[in-house]
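This section describes the prediction task in plain terms. A model, or a person checking by hand, is given the sequence of a single protein chain and must write out its three-dimensional structure as a string of tokens. No templates, partner chains or ligands are provided. The sample shown here is typical of the held-out split.
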Amino acid sequence: MTDLVGLGMTEQVGIMRGTISDLAAAKGSSQVDDLVDMGLYAFVLGVIATSAGLLRWRIERLDWRIGVVMLAIVAVCVTLIAGYEAYTTGNGPVIHRGLVYALGAAFPLAVLLTAGQFREISKPLGIALYIGGAVWALLGPGLFVVPTAWDGAYERVLAALMLAWFVTMGVMIWRDPNIARQVSDEQRS
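The expected answer:
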């Protein structure tokens, strides 16, 4: 949401051509930079809340636990992307691209590794999550080869797919924060 509001506040970055990072690093527009960074930090809080909610379910499966660790990596990557702006100043090491690669690997892994347990809870949901994780894993690397004229739109589609997963998790956690009581010990391990 802050991305879209920020786009309306500057003419330097467009929805099709400019990425979210371009918007956060817009020259001479500290209000836009602050707004987008605030949105990224709010997203990180959502990632942490989702991780806590998934851990609260006390699922013992190894794939589940690794998936939650992947969410922690997503949170660290987004925090560093928002907070470390060496890529805009020219000073210090450029870590942005490496963080985007890590994020691009950690998120689909989190989705795919947790999908198995969701399939035990709801077969259609589990299948949808497997498909969504695979789609994101296939589309993610395309961000680095899509023409510059389209990379902003492409990144926003990936972000929307990511947000859809977090909304789905939020609904699942909200509906039943103690789902562990509904899942047999055999399904949880």
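For orientation: Residues 2-171 form one domain.
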